[in-house]
Design a protein that fits this description.
seven-stranded mixed beta sheet; alpha/beta; 7 strands; Rossmann fold; globular; 15% strand
Length: 252
């Protein structure tokens, strides 16, 4: 059973020379990947990261930076390249942006990227604002969407307005989103992008950067959003990742 706290999760599979690295998004949590890790069932080593400033208070989050987050991922990937023959990066939202940069900087053992809700173009929709306010101002999970958003938020605040102090980090996210678009062109390795048809934060225009790219496969899941994934969507994502890992490793 997975831990219910916002902490890193590490698992070493003695019979595998592959490691799957999970990277959450801004204000996100390692808990978001529970359904995927459980499906992998110990077949591969797992590194489920918690980025600096996350899993703590709004003040800790405000004091962290995009540079620190990227460095944290890069340092972990560089270390893992000395231990494993195969590395697959799985990123959700901003975690996908960090994964792309890391794959450009440290390409040696990285065999593929599995990017969920990749925010190459960001839009702030009414459902996004509504869900964020519900998480900030209410402790009740009125539906599955709010429950998923709360599970995917590792930042605590004694006062909901403390979250406003983190606005500079979101400005950094917008800049990161823009700079990452060009980096995608530099990656010849296999990439899967999972896009939710009803994503509240990621614009459909994000997929324009994957058009006509032979190495990029786009998977669309329905009845899902930025944090919430229906049971059917979870199964589709998990099954696709399992196949992707196996194919990426075999090709080497």
């Amino acid at each position: 059973m997975m831990d219910s706290k916002h902490i890193e999760y590490h698992f070493k599979a003695e019979t595998s020379d592959a490691v799957i690295v999970f990277i959450h998004g801004i204000q996100g949590s390692p808990l978001q990947f529970d359904f995927i890790i459980e499906k992998l069932n110990g077949a591969y080593s797992i590194e489920n990261l918690l980025l600096p400033g996350h899993g703590k208070t709004a003040s800790d989050f405000r004091s962290s930076t995009m540079t620190q987050w990227q460095n944290y991922v890069d340092e972990r990937v560089e270390k893992l390249q000395k231990e494993y023959k195969h590395i697959i990066l799985v990123g959700h939202s901003m975690g996908g942006l960090l994964s792309i940069q890391s794959a450009v900087s440290y390409p040696e053992q990285i065999r593929g990227l599995f990017l969920i809700a990749l925010p190459l173009r960001i839009r702030v929709s009414y459902p996004c604002i509504k869900n964020s306010l519900c998480v900030a101002f209410s402790k009740k999970d009125t539906n599955e969407i709010i429950a998923a958003a709360r599970k995917g938020n590792s930042i605590s605040a004694s006062n909901p307005f403390e979250y406003l102090a983190g606005i500079p980090r979101y400005i950094e996210l917008l800049k990161k989103s823009k700079s990452t678009r060009a980096l995608l062109e530099k990656l010849p390795l296999p990439i899967v992008i999972v896009h939710s048809a009803n994503d509240e934060l990621v614009s459909n225009k994000s997929l324009n950067y994957a058009k006509d790219k032979d190495n990029i496969e786009v998977i669309t899941v329905n009845d899902s959003g930025h944090y919430y994934y229906s049971q059917g969507a979870q199964e589709k994502i998990s099954d696709t990742l399992e196949e992707f890992i196996a194919e990426s490793i075999v090709s080497f």
